[in-house]
Structure formats: C-alpha cells, structure tokens
Amino acid sequence: MPDQAYTGSLPLRTPGRTTKASPSDVRRLNRALIFNLLFPSNQCSRAELGRLTGLSRVAVSDVVNDMLDEGLIRENGHVSPATGKGKRATLLSVDTTRLRIISIDLSQAYLIQGAVTDLLGVTHQHMEIALGPDNRIDVDAIVQLVDQLRADLDSDTVIGIGIGLPGVVCDGVVRESTALGWHDVDLRTILETRFTVPVTVANDVMCAMLTERFFGQGGPNLMFVKLDRGIGSATLINDVPVVGEHHAGGEIGHISLDPEHGPDCPCGKRGCMEMLISAPALRERMIGADEETQASIIHEAGEYFASAMAMPVGLLDVTDICLCGPADVVNNAFLEAAQQRLDAMTQSKFHERTTIRRCQCGAGIALRGAAINVVLRHLEEA
Fold first, then answer.
1. DSSP 3-state assignment of 74?
2. Which domains does the chain have, with CATH numbers?
3. Which residue in 161, 108, 102 sits closest to 130, CA to CA?
4. Which superkingdom heads the taxonomic lineage of this protein's source (predicted)?
5. Cβ contacts of residue 361 below 8 Å, gap of 6+?
6. What single-letter DSSP state applies at residue 57?
7. What is the pTM of this model?
8. What is the pLDDT of residues 347-375, one digit of tens each?
C-alpha cells in the first residue's frame, strides 16, 4: 500500500470558503489524488486505486486513461491475484520516460545551475553558468541557460520550468532577495512570456524541503533548515507547507539572537542569526584559530542554532529538524551541541524528543525540488 502521499499542495477547498466543485475541479482533484498515490515510486493496479480513493471503477479508468495518454503515468508490469485465479492486474507507476522539466537553481554564489529532469526530478542533462565575483545573476543569464537546456528537447514534452532561489517569492514574483539583489522582479511572467510554458518560482529552501520529503527521510511534519551563505527554513505541518501571510515564512536568518552585543547586520539590527552562525561568518571566525578554538566556535554555533529552534518546536510540536549545510560547519560537533541544548530547552513529559539531523540528499537538492514544484503545479492547473 502506498505511504505518505503528499497532498498538502492540493487542498480540497480554500479555508473559510464553501463553493460547489465543477466537473473540471472534480476531475483535476481525482487526477492529483491518483498521481499522489503513485508518486514517487509506488505501483498500484486500477482496482487498488479505486479502493484507496473510494472512486468508482469507471472514474478511475477514465482518469487513468487520460494520464496514460498524457505521459504522467505508465503501465508497468502485472501482478497475479492473491487467490491465484482470475486475470492478472496491470500495475501503474509514474512515467519517467516521456515528459521533461527544466529546473534552475539560483541559490549558489557565483553559479547558476540548470538541469533537464524527468517527473521524479532525476537529472538527464546538466549545465552551469559560472559568474565572476563582480557579476550578478540577471534574468538574461537565466533565459540563456533555459534556451541551452531546451535546445534538444521536443517542446511538447516540456511541462514547465522550475526556479529555486533565495528570498521571498509570491505568485512568481521575487519580492525580495538580498542574495540576488532583486526587488519585485516578476520572474514568472518574464519567463512564461519568453518560453510559453508554465513557470514555477519558489524559495530554494522550500524546494530543498520537497526533495527531503519525497526522497529523503522527511515525514509530513518537518522543519527543514539550510545553513550556508545565508540561513533559511521551510516547514511542513501535516504535509502542508507553511508560507506565512506575506509568503516570508522561514526567513529566519535575520532573527536577532544577540540584539545588544552581537555584530552589526546589513538589515539594521545586531546579532542576527546569519551574522553569528552562517557558514561565511563561522569560517571567518575560524581563520587562523587552533583546533580547540575552532571546535569551541562550532560548539557555540550549535547552541545558538538550538536556541533559535526551541520556540518553533514548542509552538508546532515538530519532532524532526533536518539541517542542510557544508560539512565543515554542519558536522557532528555542531549537531551534538545543538541536540544537547535543544533537549535541555524542549524535552518534557508532554513533548517527545525533537531530533536534529543532517540532510543526506546531497548535491542538487534544490534543483530536484524545483522540478517537483513544476509537477505539483501541473496537477493543480491541468
């Protein structure tokens, strides 16, 4: 039986509103329901899908046939009945052979990464544009990379372009990205006009969290934190991403941990998290230091991190914190110090232990998540 199907991005209704669903709405939701039961790597027969969804055999067959024709799913072998008698059932799974996604990651300094992926976000072609220290990422560079990636693709097979970037994103508009130096850039409209395919733009940490959710160890309740040149987070509660009223949920890097004595921050405050424990800040402090001092710096950083996480852990009752970052910073010493401090701050008779662990999904995590975002939008809007 399929487990942990992601349904958070496909709500059955908007909270606070009750509207009558049109036939096209019902069909769209049925498509999403069936696809989510198969994604990413489950196999089910039509009869199993009917039992799991409660849909009639006719409804399942109708939706499945459309998805087979479209290239979203495929027939993938057979299974014999449990009794050993009767017709063998045909298994269905996500089709990774026909449709393609162009995925772009803008989260890394001096580098734009792009890939052509399948519906599981697996890279089939990879390209990069390296930038000099004085070069800023601009829209023209993104257009150039997308043009190169789509050059050898049949346009009918590309279902969308996914972009992951640091900053606050709302409906495809980059409201603020200090890392890119962007403010109110309507990236989705620019790229959709240029390439005439749907474009999905999302925060890079949200993209990375989707990869952890589907292909890592993440469950439906998860706090995902990226600690690198900046610090950002993303949260799932019952498989629903928490984006916030102004789509700035997870922008934790400028929460001040030491407002009186901490270092000045470009945002105007003192002691912001990014100034204290981001990778560049820690590396600068460790330059020329002996091993004992370096270990002390990492230990203190872990404690700072845990102190910042304690309040949302208490508010949301989340027991899984996944931390992504470079190994010279996010290492065993950091994690042990963070875990010890978090245990002291949050453990009680009515709260289970929250575990801080290192992300194991590896390189390309934001690229893969940006591709998954495209798949989710495709299902929502089909």
1. strand
2. 23-94 (1.10.10.10), 100-208+364-381 (3.30.420.40), 217-358 (3.30.420.40)
3. 108
4. Bacteria
5. 208, 211, 212, 215, 216, 324, 368
6. H
7. 0.90
8. 887 888 999 999 999 889 999 999 999 99
